[in-house]
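Dear colleagues,

As part of the handover before I leave the project, I'm documenting each prediction I ran so the next person doesn't have to rerun anything. This entry is a single chain, and its sequence is reproduced below.
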Amino acid sequence: MPSAAEALAANMNFSAFSKATELKSRIWFTVLALIIYRLGTYIPVPGIDPAMLSEIFQRHSGGIMDMFNMFSGGALQRMTIFALGVMPYITASIIVQLLSAILPTFEALKKEGQSGHVKLNQYSRYLTVLFAAVQSYALAVGLENMMGSQGSAVILSGTFFRISTMITLTGGTMFLMWLGEQITARGIGNGVSLIIYAGIVAGLPNAVGQTLELGRTGAMSSWFIFLILLLVVAVLAVCVACERAQRRILIQYPKRQVGNKMFGGEASHLPLKINTSGVIPPIFASSLLLFPLTLASFSNVQEKGGILSDIVVMLGHGKPLFMLLYAALIVFFAFFYTAVVFNPTDTADNLKKYGGFVPGIRPGKNTADYFDYVLTRLTVLGSAYLVAICLLPEFLMSRGAIPFYLGGTSILIVVSVTIDTISRIQSHLIAHQYEGLIKKSKLRGR
């Protein structure tokens, strides 16, 4: 039974939510935008035979196409206008962020503030158009080459089909990119992450149903299904614990005398998360593995044989090469994105500017080195946690026909985006309460 204090806090939160009109409008905008996205995942590309497409997809399932289908919210399996999803935009963002850490020109733009950020976003959009055009054209050619029992999935192949498919899919990706930016600006949470989140959540009931159906038909033992459910619950618990875990560094501010009054002397904490990079490393790693393998999958490389065919086979789910590359990319992006998000030198300089210091550590360079030391150790733990969460279900999926929606990457995305969205809602509620207190104080002061 909840205590009286908890019930009172819940009642206060509910009353604050009911009065926060801006927050409610943001939530409604986010919900409507996600509904539009889900409706678009059912609008098919012209010139596709649905029966042949379903047969071809079933034959090529269990590999890289399942991962791509998960990130597109099932749109790839239905070959709709959002079949590419937001993965071209994510790939473009990866390249722009890498260039901002390597090239001095991009690094200078990054330090310019809002104007530089706008220019980098514009470069990301240009690259998104390029990647979406290349991937959509390769997808159209691949569909023409793939044959089912009754022929190709394309009703009338040729140049017109390729160009129309390329324009349709590229336009769908650009619309999703714009929709994600609108959610970020006018809704709640990160728009691109919420779009991926909505696609994964929409596929979870079907994934659970498929797993239970495998148990009913005897294709999978009941004990194995029970083990999968326990693993999912354990992964959820570990994700929630690690995503909320923090290392708090004590920050002390000296006392200052202004006239006859003493100011300062307070102590605060600098929170450093174990997983500072969040869900970005698995998404970035998946997108980099998806880009070349998707092209190979739709160009019938495996049927032609040769070295490329062997590479595609070795990069299948559960294969040692795939596991190694996936883990290496997750670790790399965990360290890279952490370095992008948190700069120890800038943080130490800002503390020094306002008189803050870490007890026992000299301000300036020593404080920056201390932050870097702590952050490196946390990132090692965070990257190990990400690798374990993402690769452990991969082993089970390679041993059994488990739907990809129950994998570690999808669970991590769902947990991370949910926690981030709830935190943003709470921040809006707190800001709304402060605004109400300020208005009341002004009225009383008159």
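Residues 1-12 have pLDDT under 50 and may be disordered. The chain has one domain: 4-445.

All the best with the project,
I.
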